[in-house]
Amino acid sequence: MAISPQFLDELRARVGLVDTISRRVKLQRKGREHGGLCPFHNEKTPSFWVNEEKGFFHCFSCGAHGDVIGFVMRSEHLSFPEAIERLAAQAGLQVPRSSPAERAKAERYKSLATALEAACAFYERQLCGAAGREALGYLRARGLDDVTISRFRLGFSPPGNLLKTQLMKEGYTESMLLEAGLLGHNEERGETYDYFRGRVIFPIADARGRVVAFGARILGEGTPKYLNSRESEIFHKGKMLYGLAHARRGAAERGELIVVEGYMDVIALHKAGFNVAVAPLGTALTEAQLGELWRHVDEPILCFDGDAAGGRAAARAAGRALPLLKPGKSLRFVALPAGEDPDTLVQGAGADAMRAYLDRARPLVDFLWESETLAHPANTPELRSRLEQALERLAQGIQDKTVQRAYRQALRNRFWDTFAPQRFKAGKKRRPGTEGASAHIGSAGLGSGRPATEAFGPRQVEVLEMRRFQGFMAAVLNHPGILDQHLEDFGNLHPPGRDLDNLRQEILKTWTPDIDSGALKNHLKALGFSEILDRVLTREVYEAAPFAHPAQAFAAAIKGWRHSYDLLSRRRARSDIDAAERDHAESMTEESLTRLRALQRQIEADGLGTEFLDRDET
């Protein structure tokens, strides 16, 4: 059974080593690796380790070692073809049938990869020789040192056809070099020539570090400024990210990936200590590239140039990501100062300045809200209606229904928070308890349904709001089994503060049905969450949410969690209904009535029913 390297790589990426092994072995995360009891021999002390980043498992006791395919072969006693069939079915892939043509294709792939590696070595040698003096000076003027140049294997393509001459001397055929994209063909003369000439070379590697193509920048004036290899058997630019091979380890360690626009941005950020930078290859971010980003981290940070083109690129990426969103999978956006890009920023202002911008990255929902409100000014009722329709279209574009509901709710809340208060600035009195979701936090804590009174100031309401979400987190930390029934609800929580939300996301990534409280907390502490855990697991939180206490019986804990979550959902829905009723009472228009009825239908569709409209509910 001859299977192409491309198919095997895609299969390994789709199924995931840790996901596959954790179905048979209870794994606990230890830094970049996962450990557990070896399934291939009896042991009481864990000696079995799984490294997702490097793609293999290893037992230090019995010596068992291999990749995900080898694990399935060994654990399920399958042959190589049987294991491929099993994993392909799991990943939804069609196994290519072995044939002489396919075997020839696999050999050709291997030959192309070998030719590209030889070309990369040639370009590296040229950069360090007399011919590359100007190119080397250019790179050093851009702030790159020899270590960085060597790490990214930067090179130089000299004028003329030196590459063609050298590689043909080494035994590579002209047709192979053409197929690899290393040569071009002049139709008029019927001759081939070096595709890259007089340019700085940026090797493009796949996720495993194998050279598959090149990017090239002209020295001095001329067009095109950048030139990429043509697409080939092993290079599809819409599926690849420049720098990913260098960024994988950092992404695994820090849970962060920074997406920038160009080669030099990636290299400059890595040199400055941000070893998690990647870039698309001169195109808008594609669906395939988004999928690759999400395979490594939950919320990649998009940090495009601070100009109009960078803004358009960010907007295109947001639009492309929206239909693909899943619970926990999203994007964040950095807005750089006008005229700056990541390269110039770290060169001019330093790594600390870059870190400050990254820490202020905005969630996708904020980016979309700001983009839509800029695109749709809303200073009249008609224009507000147009904006409301645009926001609804955004939410409807999300395929995942859970995320769609969450976005519809978030955008709806922002709309009413922004525009409804304008109708009350003249001093019209609001009904108590109708100022928003946070105003319904009970004075007796999370379990109360009583509305807040005017005795609560803004700061007190803010603290109570934080306590509510800390209670949800504390309950899951002390009773992880809650997520057996409420995993989706936990994913739909949107706690205030990035620290608390980061904790929620890490719990979602870590949780398994058999994990216990101690293992979960130890894992989170090992990842640097000790400070936020200390703020969540406190007496004040337990007083506000008694069901979260570690000494609470599980049945009582899950009952309290469910009750508190139901109240939160009802408060949010009630806030929307209140705002819509106020609007209709004030304007008495067909538009406001349609809005109110649409909200009532949505509440019924979400399973809340309409009985929650009873204002005496406790």
Structural commentary:
This protein is α+β, with helices and mostly antiparallel strands and about 625 residues long. It has 5 domains: about 5-90, Alpha-Beta Complex (DNA Primase, Chain A), CATH 3.90.580.10; about 100-235, Alpha-Beta Complex (DNA primase DNAg catalytic core, N-terminal domain); about 240-370, Dna Topoisomerase Vi A Subunit, Chain: A, domain 2; about 375-425, no CATH class; about 435-605, no CATH class. The protein is about 50% helix and about 10% strand. The protein has 26 helices and 16 strands. The strands form 4 sheets. The protein has a 5-stranded antiparallel β-sheet with strand order 1-2-3-4-5. A 5-stranded mixed β-sheet has the order 13-12-14-15-16. It has a 4-stranded antiparallel β-sheet with strand order 6-9-10-11, with helices on one face. Strand 3 and strand 4 (about 55-60) form a beta hairpin. The N and C termini lie far apart (about 65 Å).
